Each structure stands twice: as C-alpha cells, then as structure tokens.
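User: Peptidase M14 domain-containing protein, Manduca sexta:
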Amino acid sequence: MSLPYIFFLLALTIVERHQRLFYYILKVIYSLFILGRDLWVMVVSASPYEHMIGKPDVKYVANIHGNEAVGRELLLHLIQYLVTSYDTDPYIKWLLDNTRIHLMPSMNPDGFAISKEGQCDTIHGRHNARRYDLNRNFPDFFKVNTKQIQPETEAVKEWISKIQFVLSGSLHGGALVASYPFDNTPNAIFQTYAHSPSISPDDDVFRHLSLVYSNNHAKMSRGVSCKSGSPRFENGITNGAAWYPLTGGMQDYNYLWHGCMEITLEISCCKYPPAHELPKYWQDNKQSLIKYLAEVHRGAHGFVMDENGNPVERAAIRVKGRDVSYHTTKYGEFWRILLPGTYRVDISAEGYLPQEVEFIVIDNHPTLLNITLHSAKESGLNHSTVKILDPVTTSTTKPGNDGTIIFPED
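Assistant: Predicted structure for Peptidase M14 domain-containing protein:
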C-alpha cells in the first residue's frame, strides 16, 4: 500500500479523528508557537496530559532540515502505530505505561513547504524561511555561535528547558548512519584535525545507543554507502566530528546544556524520495524507532529527598569520570543512562551536605537509587558516602519469558 506525503496539519487532523473515540487516553497534541506558525508535538503515553512521576520523558524531532522529509512521515506513522498497538502488543503497552513519548514531526515547516518530492540531493528547502540552517543555530560549547538565533530554535530551546527529557533522537536524511556526540571539537583540534573524533564523557553509552538503532534497522548496520564516493560507516554508526565537525548542532546542545542524550539519525539516502517508497522506509525503521526509546530505561534512576521526605529540586548529579552534570526535577527525580558496571555518583544541592553513592548497574534492570540529603545547618558532617553493591531494581519490567527486561542485543 502506498503511503503518500500528507500536508502536515491535514495529517494531524486525520490521525486525531481516526483515533479520537478509541485512543483519547493515550495521546494529546500541543504546539510551540512561532510567528504565526505552530511546531506541533504529539505526546503518546498512558498519561499524555501530565508528567508521570518517576517515569521519563523522551522525544523525537524530525524535519529540522525542511527538504529531509522521510522523518516527518515516519513520526506520523509511529504515532498511529503506538496508539493502535497499545491493547494488542505487550511491548508497546509496557513502553507507553512507563514512558511519555513526545514526537515533533516537523521543526522546519517553512522549509518543507518549498521542498520538492523526488529531489534527493539538492539543498532547496533545507533552511528556514529566513535562510538559516537550524542545525547550526544552537548555542555551542566549543565555539561561540554568532548566527542569529531563529524563532524555531528559540521555541525548541524553551521546550527543552521546560520538560526534562532524558533521551532524544533527531531524524535527518541524505545518509544511512546513527551519529553521536560530539559534533564539534575544541578549537585547536578543529583547526588541525578536522575529521578526528571528538569524544564525549559518555562515549560508551552514545555508541551503545547508536548501535541499538543501527542493529534494529534493516540496512544501517551494514555500513551502506549511499552513493559513489560517500563514506561507509562501520556498523552504521559514527562520531559526529569524525564524519564532519559542525558548530551549533542540536544534539550537542541537548547533551551539554540539559543532560538529554540525543543522537542524530540519518535514515534515508534520498532526502525527499517519491511517496511510493515510504512503506519501505517505515518497515526499515519501525523496530529501531521503538527499541531506541526503550533504552531510556537502562542505567540508574531514582529520587533525591531531604530528611523530611520532600523532593530536592535542581540537585546536581555527577557520575565520577563523566564530567556532565544532570539535575533533579521539581519532584526530585533523576535518570542516568549507563551501561553495566560499578559507578560512583556525587549528589549536591545548595544548603545540603554533598553525598557520594557507589552503585552497580546490571544489564536487565534499571538500578533504583533513592537518596536522602541532610541539611548542612543541622549536621556536623561535611560529606557522606553510601555503597549500594547489591542493586535494588525497579519492579516494572518489559515483557519477556522470565519477566526480565530484554534489551536489544548490540
């Protein structure tokens, strides 16, 4: 069956009408308003209208380059697939019961509006209406970004600041690869070794997340070269800067400013392929899109509370050896995606004694860490250390033969 490209607002209307009677409890639409045009977001979850305490928020963003059209269509199909599979697929039910999934099919509707179906390699429509590349428009850790901030970028920045996303994917086209941070490099390296990897503190986790997407994709893990002279990527993944360094990318911004682990997913060799090819792209990416989001339940999570059981907001969570800070929500929640191993984490907040916790992460269950911080005024201590070598794991599990969480193999 052919899946034609659908004008975006019409597509949302069709999805909404088709599912309103049966699936209203699973989804809600909201928008980020910019200059008379909306950036629409659909939330798909067992609790779409409000945050589920203790359960993470994740997102996909597509069509940041307007002429890269496959991602926007795939997210529309993903919305429909998730809500119609909730009552029939135990894995999907588990995912929606334990995760809030935010899907933005188009970050650049103006660019898409002037793009043309069948154009695989042109840049017409790549930029927004003001001719800015939105994936070069975010603040950058390594180099001052002098480009004028665009309304779409500002809207997404505000969105990310209001919702504490844990995991994210940005959908692009023009290659077949999962690219992970860093996209940029320190200036000295940038000038001398333009195509050297720029390694993040969480390189092991980012490589794993990229492999999850690649290995569940129909072709990506083969390292397919899209055309003569284009690179082949081993296992279908690459460090962003090793491919080509860039300033102002969205994935580095998510990670360094907000502690959200985002990778860039190049999902089609042709940027705007003919509509009759859409079913193939959906089948190629369907499992990857779902399995990737489930990785948010890997690692450690929990709550930071005070001695009276009140949540400590904005407590800094820093895993030793990984110099990127994460912060608790207003409910005291935190999540940290980690691979199996033993870790030490420092927890600190203004007015409280810092605490160090040693804990273990295992493969099949996320480790639960509930941490109590003591007031600095009421204690003679200046630091405390806790060891949790027998990990407490959450009872919520993915469906499996033995009830354990089953993650995709690397």
